[in-house]
Amino acid sequence: MRKPANILLLAIVLGALSAALVYRHLRALRAEIEAARRPAVTVVVANETLSVGGRIEPHQVRTAPWPVEIEPEGAIHDPASVVGNAVRTSIEKNQPVLKSQLAPPGAGLLPPLIAEGMRAMSVKVDSVTGVSGFITPSSRVDVLATGDPGGGGGQNLRGKLILQNVRVLASGKSVEQRDDKPVEVPTVTLLVSPEDAEKLTLATRTEPVRLTLRNFQDEAIVRTAGTSIRALFGEDGPLDGARDGASAHRPRYSVEVIRGTTVTRQTFYRP
């Protein structure tokens, strides 16, 4: 007696499932028909993800119908008008290409890479200051500068980390005159704020800056006080005898200095 009841229950469940699937299909079909009836406009969309700074090739864009009521502002309708333009902001696949996302026709590749409020500034480097050529576009670097705040001589020379986690826009060469001859000089173009551009201008006025390469995932900002020749070799700098090439050994003594929870040891030389 229970077997026919089970079969009947199974048939009811299967019937309900079939009805739900048919209803769902008809609903989707109805939505497609209604969408097809809506007025549409043809817009240019990306065939693939378009990266910042690249120039658009013909195969990277196509046209697609887009509902008129949600047409984005600045949409483009002629794919030929965007070919060769540089991309200012990344454009995802199947998304409309907008006028605001493209650089003006004929613009170079570098300006689209400069974010609003930022500046591109080039500095001269060599095989040492430029980390032996390992710095490439999109690298992240720190900038170190040296200078003599008091202008009193080499003992007052200081080194300071002035900029951190700076993006490299480009690396190349510039031409300058040396001994009345044109010489190619390696340069690195950095993306900096206007304030940092001022610092960089002062830092490169007399001495070349040095660049240190960072890990892409390291975005930490380290606070440093800088260092000096005096701090590097002791408060009194190199010994007088050592400067003359002699092996001088002056008597000295050390004292522990306690400041709060910090204990330091300072060395003093006897006269």
Describe the structure.
This protein is an alpha+beta fold and 271 residues long. The chain folds into four domains: 34 residues; 72 residues, Antifreeze-like/N-acetylneuraminic acid synthase C-terminal domain (Type Iii Antifreeze Protein Isoform Hplc 12), CATH 3.90.1210.10; 118 residues, no CATH class; 36 residues, no CATH class. 20% of the residues lie in helices and 31% in strands. It is built from four helices and ten strands; from the N terminus they run αββββββαββααββ. The strands form three sheets. Strands 3, 4, 5, 6, 7 and 8 form a six-stranded antiparallel β-sheet that branches. The protein is elongated. The N and C termini lie far apart (117 Å).
Residue windows where pLDDT falls under 50 for at least 5 positions: 237-248
Cα Rg: 34 Å
User: Helix count?
Assistant: 4
Q: How many structural domains can be distinguished in the coordinates? A: 4
Cα(first) to Cα(last) distance is: 117 Å
What is the succession of H and E elements? HEEEEEEHEEHHEE
Helix percent band: 10-25%
Strand percentage lies at 25-35%
* SS-derived structural category: alpha+beta
The rough form would be described as elongated
Number of strands: 10
Largest sheet: 6 strands, antiparallel
- What is the mean pLDDT? 78
